């Protein structure tokens, strides 16, 4: 029995006890059955959340949520705009007064309960992610664990928002530093991690006493709404967490122009991040930005080939290449280039493509047609400039938005594949001769989020990882994100850090009291 089918049976037995499914049903009908079962589960919501109430848009407009693997409509959600966002801001502003006055221990208990509920609904949340985002179920379940870990971590961290006592400059003075919540936070999140990008922001915000208006991606709002439902079930008071979606620029403008919103936290494209940064100037808001990357993955001659292949595969192909920390350029040293290209292509060839509910599938569809067209144009650009496709290089025979896992050699720095994020399952291999050359190529970009190096030379490990202008560096490792470490970029990859003890600093003001 597949994992998906096991999970489906669990949902069906708890929510639709009388529905019997034939043992061998097709992938499409299985997905429809999963969707039907999920719609009857206690976490399924398809309206916005404002002040603890589930509501539609004021004019009744809706927007469809589709399954990228089949194109089927999963649900309609409200197409909200300025008015609903203003209502959500007012609710968050009102709730701030009482939420911020709770003790850290009280807020911690609410978050812990929310974490427990997220984990006890892991299967349904994972299925929702696969359904609306397309990633394989196993990866989706991994995201639930990863996403929930931020709520657990910040439930604990809530109790450790320490201030300071500064030795006074005058005998009769006492100087104190307090950390206080910034206030109402607007959190705008993308579709590639429908749960984790929300919990990574909401966890620290709620922990230190802020309240939040979340705007998830319109492509994947159902996971956000399910997580919000679980927050309500955990007893988190109405108005502390609000969710609106629909007209993204209008919602963004409403958040930016409100003087009650004191902070914007955003994960998404660099272009939108820059707009938000400019827009935040009007009301001088705090800002955290997690923007695009252009991750180099450097394989040195002295690397362990198996480790390098495994690590590069993970760094490149997770979520079908649709993450901002995915390896975007694989830089391989001259002496190992041919061997690496061969071993890597073999490994890529074994990646099974298909709908995320099928057992064994590790590559799902791309999020939409625009994403496939972008990948196609980047590959074409590389071919026209002399690169060679040694594996894949076209749409998958499955149709829809499936694209073949692809390896391209002879890629050079001036090609689009090396200059911009491809955000798809294409691995461009560039060749370099010396360590200095690799560092130069790696840093020759405006982005600076994640970088990876593969080497067995200890001195080189320190030298190169410190010379790379990146916020995160993985050494002999392709997956490095964890709730306990600071995640964030340098240069145009963003501002601020998420996760870890540093993550909560983004949501507090440092207040100084001088007492005579
Ligand atoms: P991607 O290309 O990965 O979808 P985007 O930056 O377009 O990245 O989207 C990330 C998030 O930003 C989504 O929730 C999207 O709806 C939102 N968004 C897009 N444009 C705007 C805007 N002008 N103002 C506020 N949010 C926006």
From TrEMBL:
Enzyme nomenclature, EC number: 1.2.1.24
Keyword Oxidoreductase: yes
A biological-process GO annotation: gamma-aminobutyric acid catabolic process
Gene Ontology cellular component terms for the protein in this record: mitochondrial matrix
Compartment(s) of residence: Mitochondrion matrix
Predominant place of localization: mitochondrion
Protein's UniProt name: Succinate-semialdehyde dehydrogenase
Organism of provenance: Corchorus capsularis
Record lineage: Eukaryota, Viridiplantae, Streptophyta, Embryophyta, Tracheophyta
């Amino acid at each position: 029995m597949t994992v998906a089918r096991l999970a489906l049976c669990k949902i069906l037995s708890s929510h639709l006890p009388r529905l019997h499914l034939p043992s061998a049903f097709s992938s499409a009908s299985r997905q429809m059955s999963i969707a039907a079962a999920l719609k009857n589960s206690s976490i399924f919501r398809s309206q916005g959340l404002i002040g603890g109430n589930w509501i539609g848009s004021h004019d009744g407009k809706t927007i469809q949520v589709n399954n990228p693997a089949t194109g089927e409509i999963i649900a309609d959600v409200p197409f909200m705009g300025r008015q609903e966002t203003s209502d959500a801001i007012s609710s968050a502003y009102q709730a701030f007064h009482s939420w911020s006055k709770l003790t850290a221990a009280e807020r911690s208990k609410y978050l812990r309960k929310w974490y427990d509920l997220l984990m006890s609904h892991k299967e349904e949340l994972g299925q929702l992610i696969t359904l609306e985002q397309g990633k394989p179920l196993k990866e989706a379940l991994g995201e639930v664990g990863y996403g929930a870990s931020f709520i657990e971590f910040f439930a604990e961290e809530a109790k450790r928002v320490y201030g300071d006592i500064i030795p006074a400059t005058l005998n009769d003075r006492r100087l104190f530093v307090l950390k206080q919540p910034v206030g109402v936070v607007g959190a705008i999140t993308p579709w590639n991690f429908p749960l984790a990008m929300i919990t990574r922001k909401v966890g620290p915000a709620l922990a230190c006493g802020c309240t939040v208006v979340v705007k998830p991606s319109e492509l994947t709002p159902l996971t956000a709404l399910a997580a919000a439902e679980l927050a309500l079930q955990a007893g988190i008071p109405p108005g502390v967490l609000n969710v609106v979606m629909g007209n993204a620029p209008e919602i963004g403008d409403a958040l930016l122009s409100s003087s009650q919103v004191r902070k914007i936290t955003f994960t998404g494209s660099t272009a939108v991040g820059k707009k938000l940064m400019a827009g935040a100037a009007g009301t001088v808001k705090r800002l955290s930005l997690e923007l695009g990357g252009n991750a180099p993955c450097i394989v040195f001659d002295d690397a362990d080939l198996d480790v390098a292949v495994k690590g590069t595969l993970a760094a490149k192909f997770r979520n079908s290449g649709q993450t901002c920390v995915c390896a975007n350029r694989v830089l391989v040293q001259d002496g190992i280039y041919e061997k690496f290209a061969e071993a890597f292509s073999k490994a890529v060839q074994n990646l099974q493509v298909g709908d995320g509910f099928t057992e064994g599938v590790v590559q799902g569809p791309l999020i939409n047609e625009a994403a496939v067209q972008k990948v196609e144009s980047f590959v074409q650009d590389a071919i026209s400039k002399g690169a060679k496709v040694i594996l894949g290089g076209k749409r998958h025979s499955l149709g829809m938005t499936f694209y073949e896992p692809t390896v391209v050699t002879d890629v050079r720095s001036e090609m689009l594949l090396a200059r911009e994020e491809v955000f798809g399952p294409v691995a461009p291999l560039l060749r370099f001769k010396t360590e200095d050359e690799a560092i130069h190529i790696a840093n020759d970009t405006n982005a600076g989020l994640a970088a990876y190096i593969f080497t067995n030379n200890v001195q080189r490990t320190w030298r190169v990882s410190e010379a790379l202008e990146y916020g995160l560096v993985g050494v002999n490792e392709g997956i490095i994100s964890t709730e306990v470490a600071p995640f964030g970029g340098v240069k145009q990859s963003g501002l601020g850090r998420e996760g870890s003890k540093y993550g909560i600093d983004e949501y507090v003001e440092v207040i100084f009291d001088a007492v005579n």
